[in-house]
Amino acid sequence: MQIFLTAIAVIIRITSNSLTNVFQKKLTLYRENPVSVNCINYLILSCLSIPLLYFIDFSQLNKNFWLYATCGGICGALCNCFMVMALKRGELSVLGPINSYKAIIGLIFGVLILHEIPNIYGFLGMLLIIFGSYFIFDEAGFGIFKRKDIKYRIYALIFSAIEAVFIKKVIILSSITTSFAASSFMGFVFSLFIMKYLYRTKFKLPETKSFQYYILTAICFALMTFSTAYVFKYLNVAYALSLFQLSIIINVILGYQLFREKKLIKKLIGSLIILIGSATIFIFGH
Description:
Radius of gyration: 18 Å
């Protein structure tokens, strides 16, 4: 039964992640400020989390919990902010597959910080991701990394990878419910800080025409946050991150269907190659 529920949670996480990106991009097409989108998203999520506070025993939360929750909130707010900024400028079918570079970044940090040398599967996975990326990047080649949208997407995936570790720590020290509430409230606090003090943007309520997309974004983001916490509780983080990469296929299809992004077949082939490379690193590359 637990395996079945975890599988359902993985499917919800993959789908809700892609739909969150779609609605965030829709908001940027309405000329909504990315940092405001990020802040309002976390504000709605925090409102949804208020009833959960009744079920949390705050006396059981130690200083390590608050440290990891704070670090996770900072990384989550930065990740989502950079993601919306990337979506404002780039194509969903390109930005989605770049998430698989998270595996390569993990290997690099493993070498630099932990002195872990990847095995043959790790190098093979890296080559597959790079080879698959060439199909996605098209005629731009790897010069595409000079573009702002790609840079923002890479910043987002770096903070996402770090956030995953903190989420796992928070869950170990508390529960899935507590982790969800902590991610929501901490994310709002730090996204508000980013908006007011880093980008000097005033907080304002969304206009009527874009309000529905804010609600849809928040619902999908809530499903993504809760399902991520659930999967992390029952699966190794490396395996979970590998399964989450399946969302890149959905992103490519949605980019083609909703935003008329081009070269669907070529991008799907590249995404499949990237997917195999990412799974190879996460499962066999250490």
